[in-house]
């Protein structure tokens, strides 16, 4: 039987790497797109998928260029597409509003449009985000909770969500939005708060540094494990009908709790090391996120497997090991 072809944008990111492992296991022919600069410096940019490179095909393309995406779609003619690529760091979106909004909104529009032109039957997943809820009107947040984004990033994701839904409604495409709440792992980028904390705890334990500067410790997030969330993405595209789903754990914890636990696992007293630094506060904060994933549970049969404590432990253990391995 011919293998199904799948196209993953952002294949080199945290979610792209876990999703690719899952898709390869399921027997797909996996194609990814990355920026040309990533191909020129794979050690630096492709570390998360280094172990997968021999099994996938990578094309250079950019979210800023419609022709580059169109050409890749035309070459692959995928049956499924997971659009994960974006400027995804909320803090940075305040510093560079224009490029975040241009890249994220146009990039999504280009992917959808290219698929519609070349392979309208292709099933497509868009990585929407709990950041769309922003100053949320209710807790927990579900698929009906109104959006009130609080950052250029959140605004760009609302537009991407609307574009995806509209390609479904206007052109009959099998297009789904995954409203994923924060999802973390040992492959998380170092700029996000969980990885910043787990890595600092490991460095302090190993005597490499003494202090960790953080912003708002009271912000609360619904943190899950990225490996669980990519399963939900895949499940969405295997349904009879396209739809939108909240993917979350249903629990919320503050940054302070994450710090306490992470430092505890490293055998450290966080109060001796953490410095609250206004430089890391955001112009507009999202104070409280907690997702209601009952629709995904009922319709997809999905539920998170890794809980908060295990996630924190996994990240700290992995960073300690990483530092130890480097010393060998
Ligand atoms: O911040 C607070 C910060 O940058 C979490 C992205 O994947 O999830 C992520 O967005 C919280 C915020 O993630 C620091 O103010 C305190 O309240 O880890 P983060 P995020 O902004 O929630 C959503 C679902 C996405 O879609 C995004 O792409 O932590 N915080 N001190 C800090 N945050 C950072 N980064 N650094 C600090 O020092």
In a nutshell, what does this entry contain?
This protein has 328 residues and is of the alpha/beta class. Helices cover 43% and strands 15% of the residues.
Describe the protein's architecture and organization:
The protein is an alpha/beta fold and 328 residues long. It has two domains: 5-183 and 225-247, NAD(P)-binding Rossmann-like Domain (Rossmann fold); 189-221 and 251-286 and 305-327, UDP-galactose 4-epimerase, domain 1 (Alpha-Beta Complex). The chain is 43% helix and 15% strand. The chain is globular, with a radius of gyration of 19 Å. The model has no long low-confidence stretch (mean pLDDT 98).
The helix count comes to 12
Largest sheet: number of strands, sense, barrel closure: 7 strands, parallel
In angstroms, what separates the terminal alpha carbons? 46 Å
Q: Give the C-alpha Rg.
A: 19 Å
Q: How many domain regions?
A: 2
- The appropriate CATH architecture of the largest domain is 3-Layer(aba) Sandwich
Give the helices and strands as they follow along the chain.
Answer: EHEHHEHEHHEHEEHEEEHEEHEHH
Using DSSP, what is the number of strands? 13
Q: Beta-sheet strand percentage?
A: 15-25%
**CATH topology of the largest domain, anyone?**
Rossmann fold
CATH superfamily of the largest domain: NAD(P)-binding Rossmann-like Domain
CATH class category of the largest domain: Alpha Beta
Mean pLDDT rating: 98
Label the structural class: alpha/beta
Q: Are any ligands bound, and if so which?
A: ligand F7E
Low-confidence stretches: none
């Amino acid at each position: 039987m011919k293998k199904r072809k799948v196209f993953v944008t952002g294949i080199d990111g945290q979610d792209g790497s876990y999703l690719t492992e899952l898709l390869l296991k399921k027997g797909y022919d996996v194609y990814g797109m990355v920026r040309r600069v990533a191909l020129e410096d794979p050690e630096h940019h492709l570390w998360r998928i280094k172990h997968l490179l021999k099994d996938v095909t990578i094309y250079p393309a950019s979210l800023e260029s419609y022709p580059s995406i169109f050409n890749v779609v035309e070459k692959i003619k995928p049956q499924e597409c997971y659009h994960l690529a974006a400027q995804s760091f909320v803090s940075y979106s305040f510093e560079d509003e224009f490029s975040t909004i241009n890249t994220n909104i146009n990039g999504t529009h280009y992917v959808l449009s290219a698929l519609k032109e070349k392979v309208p039957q292709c099933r497509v997943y868009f990585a929407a985000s709990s950041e769309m809820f922003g100053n949320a009107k209710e807790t927990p947040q579900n698929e009906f909770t109104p959006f009130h984004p609080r950052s250029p990033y959140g605004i760009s994701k609302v537009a991407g969500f609307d574009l995806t839904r509209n390609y479904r409604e206007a052109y009959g495409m099998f297009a789904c939005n995954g409203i994923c709440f924060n999802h973390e792992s040992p492959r998380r980028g170092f700029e996000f708060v969980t990885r910043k904390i787990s890595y600092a705890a490991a460095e302090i334990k190993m005597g490499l540094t003494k202090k960790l500067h953080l912003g708002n410790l009271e912000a609360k997030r619904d943190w899950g494990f990225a490996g669980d969330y990519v399963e939900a993405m895949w499940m969405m595209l295997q349904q009879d009908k396209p739809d939108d789903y909240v993917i979350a754990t249903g629990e919320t914890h503050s940054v302070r709790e994450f710090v306490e636990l992470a430092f505890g696992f490293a055998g450290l007293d966080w109060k001796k090391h953490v410095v609250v630094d206004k430089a890391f506060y955001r112009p507009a904060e999202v104070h409280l996120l907690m997702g209601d994933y009952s629709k995904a549970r009922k319709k997809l049969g999905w539920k998170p497997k890794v809980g908060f404590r295990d996630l924190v432990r996994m990240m700290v253990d992995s960073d300690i090991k990483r530092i130890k391995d480097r010393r060998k």
